[in-house]
């Protein structure tokens, strides 16, 4: 579940362990009962501008922060961690009470759980009430219940999963969502087209549907045209992208679109394809594909075998191969 993956993520960050969190290494800074008379001085500067001495066994915030930032430190985060992870660790040094216990749930604005085998987005995610970005790429999610998504969510990335049905996701979708990434999944036309409308995504600006199995260009465009705020669209990798008039029809059908398949739509292109949307008869449900074989490895080459001697009684072996392409 996403909850289990999140707990593992917190464990990896070590927000409660040295040099983060509360412990013997910084106790005097956060002990309200400590007084100078007791000989345990709070960190800071005296009136003369001199830094007061630290109690034995404690470290200054500067020294603790250096342990986090030095790439050779055993407490440094791995290179693949996000800037937010580093920020949380720094917060756990300077203001550990803000990330202690359940307080940490209110701090997260972005959560990236990539390639961790997550199969289910459970209700535990609702603890992250302030979450605005959720990246769950390359997991094993096939269905997602939108009731388990925080309502503040603006970015949802599900690229490289096994999503085949959007019905549960569209039951109570986050109303402020601006980007929805569904590339490299198992969505197909025409069953899923009806879930890609303004009724479900009123604030959607960016939509990635690349490398799925959408085949009905006319049907899909009729639904996407209701997304008045849509500016970025990815459809490459779907069978409908093989239609000769694919790009021109989309450019003319969605006049507010700025980027299609990672290519900016300029005024010249809009002028070139003007009025193409009024000629749906030009869209044919067929495409021509040219496949060029550069090299095949691991297959024995019959021509390399030595010719049998004349009169030899050795058995003759014939080789034949069949290459199949699935579309």
From TrEMBL:
<protein>
    <submittedName>
        <fullName>LRC43 protein</fullName>
    </submittedName>
</protein>
<dbReference type="InterPro" id="IPR032675">
    <property type="entry name" value="LRR_dom_sf"/>
</dbReference>
<dbReference type="InterPro" id="IPR001611">
    <property type="entry name" value="Leu-rich_rpt"/>
</dbReference>
<keyword id="KW-0677">Repeat</keyword>
<dbReference type="GO" id="GO:0005737">
    <property type="term" value="C:cytoplasm"/>
</dbReference>
<keyword id="KW-0433">Leucine-rich repeat</keyword>
């Amino acid at each position: 579940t996403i909850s289990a993956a999140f707990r593992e993520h917190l464990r990896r960050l070590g927000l409660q362990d040295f040099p983060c969190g509360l412990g013997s290494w910084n106790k005097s800074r956060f002990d309200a009962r400590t007084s100078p008379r007791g000989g345990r001085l709070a960190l800071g500067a005296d009136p003369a501008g001199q830094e007061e001495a630290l109690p034995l066994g404690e470290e200054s915030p500067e020294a603790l922060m250096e342990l986090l930032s030095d790439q050779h430190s055993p407490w440094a985060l791995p290179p693949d961690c996000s800037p937010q992870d580093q920020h949380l660790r720094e917060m756990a040094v300077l203001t550990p009470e803000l990330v202690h216990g359940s307080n940490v749930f209110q701090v997260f604005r972005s959560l990236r759980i990539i390639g961790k085998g997550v199969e289910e987005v459970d209700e535990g995610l609702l603890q992250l009430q302030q979450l605005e970005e959720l990246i769950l790429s390359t997991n094993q999610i096939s269905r997602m219940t939108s009731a388990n998504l925080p309502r503040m969510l603006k970015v949802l990335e599900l690229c490289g999963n096994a999503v085949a049905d959007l019905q549960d996701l569209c039951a109570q979708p986050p109303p402020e969502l601006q980007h929805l990434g569904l590339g490299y999944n198992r969505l197909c036309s025409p069953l899923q087209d009806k879930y890609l409308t303004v009724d479900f995504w009123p604030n959607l600006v960016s939509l990635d549907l690349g490398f799925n199995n959408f085949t009905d260009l006319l049907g899909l465009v009729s639904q996407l045209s209701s997304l008045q705020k849509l500016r970025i669209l990815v459809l490459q990798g779907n069978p409908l992208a093989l239609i000769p008039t694919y790009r021109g029809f989309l450019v003319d059908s969605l006049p507010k679109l700025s980027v299609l398949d990672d290519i900016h739509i300029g005024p010249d292109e809009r002028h070139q394809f003007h009025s193409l949307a009024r000629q749906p008869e030009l869209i044919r449900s067929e495409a021509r594909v040219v496949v060029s074989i550069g090299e095949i490895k691991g297959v024995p080459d019959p021509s390399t075998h030595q010719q049998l001697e004349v009169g030899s009684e050795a058995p003759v072996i014939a080789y034949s191969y069949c290459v199949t392409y699935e579309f």
